[in-house]
């Protein structure tokens, strides 16, 4: 079975409180986009579990990859037999795009289908929440207001049809725990779920990401990318998650030559989610 887990961007991201369990409550709008990894899952011929990867380097122990964790969870609960999983990594890790979370959630869905477990959406969401907070979103994979740790979701309409999306990922990595340590949690006057209903042209001054100022102070290249996007007629631009990805919405894709050397770049129309360009610019 071959699956293509896609990533997401954040429209607004407010960190409103630190919880007793050490996590933080957030308010954001998660929006799925078409930039995707590819995962191939096959039954194991010799009854041995295997995980391999290609494409972009994935930091950390392969045993902690969420594809592996998803299989281990399904094995412990539903006695799923060993499989061979190969992940071709395209979504840049550590970029705030949720690629790892998507890989884990899609693996759960694939194993459910492969072995005819009959788990419904609610059951899959519960399993996904055990893998990671953002994993839950990718079970239904539709625009949603995210609260709690990101696992409390409510579907929402986002009117960006006809606009082009450009994602830029510079060659820097922001550790999520370090990013949260910089934040002073506070409620905002207008949460993202209210701002999202306004015309996109009004988001620039109202839809904010609490991580952005702190991350940009550490990595000025991220601030510069956002400035370039606005100079090239972006209607709205923001950092996604805790970084380092920056995205912009445009009425038409700007000329990219020479703008983002060394950065990963992906462009599409959110209306069709069809990639127009993807890769590293030199």
Structural summary, described in words:
The chain is of the alpha+beta class and 282 residues long. The chain folds into two domains: 2-155, Ribosomal Protein S5, domain 2, CATH 3.30.230; 164-280, Alpha-Beta Plaits (2-Layer Sandwich), CATH 3.30.70.890. Helix content is 26%, strand content 29%. The chain contains eight helices and 13 strands. The chain has helices at 66-78, 99-114, 121-131, 137-140, 176-181, 192-195, 212-218, 220-231; strands spanning 2-3, 6-18, 24-36, 38-43, 50-55, 83-89, 144-147, 152-155, 164-169, 236-239, 246-250, 264-269, 274-280. Strands 10-11-9-12-13 form a five-stranded antiparallel beta sheet, with helices on one face. The longest helix is centred in the middle third of the chain and has 16 residues, at 99-114. The chain is globular, with a radius of gyration of 19 Å. Residues 270-282 have low confidence and may be disordered.
| CATH hierarchy: architecture of the largest domain | 2-Layer Sandwich
Radius of gyration: 19 Å
Tertiary shape: globular
Report the top-level CATH class of the largest domain: Alpha Beta
Mean pLDDT: 91
CATH topology of the largest domain: Ribosomal Protein S5, domain 2
Widest sheet, order of strands: 10-11-9-12-13
Structural class: alpha+beta
Q: Strand content of the residues, in percent?
A: 25-35%
Q: Main β-sheet, in a few words? A: 5 strands, antiparallel
- The beta-strand count equals 13
Q: Oligomer, anyone?
A: single chain
The percent range for helix content is 25-40%
- How many helices in DSSP terms? 8
Distance between the termini: 34 Å
């Amino acid at each position: 079975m071959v699956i293509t887990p896609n990533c997401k961007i954040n429209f607004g991201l407010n960190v409103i409180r630190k919880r007793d369990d050490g996590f933080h409550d957030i308010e954001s709008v998660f929006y799925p986009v078409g930039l995707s990894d590819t995962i191939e899952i096959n039954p194991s011929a010799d009854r041995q579990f295997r995980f391999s990867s290609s494409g972009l380097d994935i930091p950390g122990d392969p045993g902690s990859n969420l594809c592996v964790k998803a299989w281990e969870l399904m094995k412990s609960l539903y006695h799923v037999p060993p499989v061979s999983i190969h992940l071709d990594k395209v979504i840049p890790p550590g970029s705030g795009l949720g690629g790892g979370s998507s890989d884990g959630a899609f693996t759960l869905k694939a194993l459910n289908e492969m072995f005819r477990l009959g788990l419904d959406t609610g059951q899959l969401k519960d399993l996904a929440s055990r893998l990671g907070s953002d994993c839950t979103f990718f079970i239904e994979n539709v625009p949603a207001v995210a609260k709690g740790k990101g696992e409390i979701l409510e579907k929402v309409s986002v009117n960006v049809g006809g606009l082009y999306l450009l994602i830029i990922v510079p060659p820097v990595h922001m550790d999520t725990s370090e990013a949260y340590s910089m934040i002073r949690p506070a409620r905002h006057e207008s949460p993202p779920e209210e701002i999202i209903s306004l015309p996109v042209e009004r988001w620039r001054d109202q839809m904010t990401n609490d991580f952005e100022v702190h991350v940009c102070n550490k990595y000025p290249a991220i601030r510069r990318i956002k400035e370039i996007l606005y100079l090239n007629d972006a209607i709205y631009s923001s950092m996604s998650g805790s970084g380092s990805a920056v995205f912009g919405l445009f009425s038409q894709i700007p000329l990219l030559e020479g703008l983002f050397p060394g950065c990963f770049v992906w462009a599409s129309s959110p209306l069709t989610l069809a990639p127009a360009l993807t890769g590293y610019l030199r």
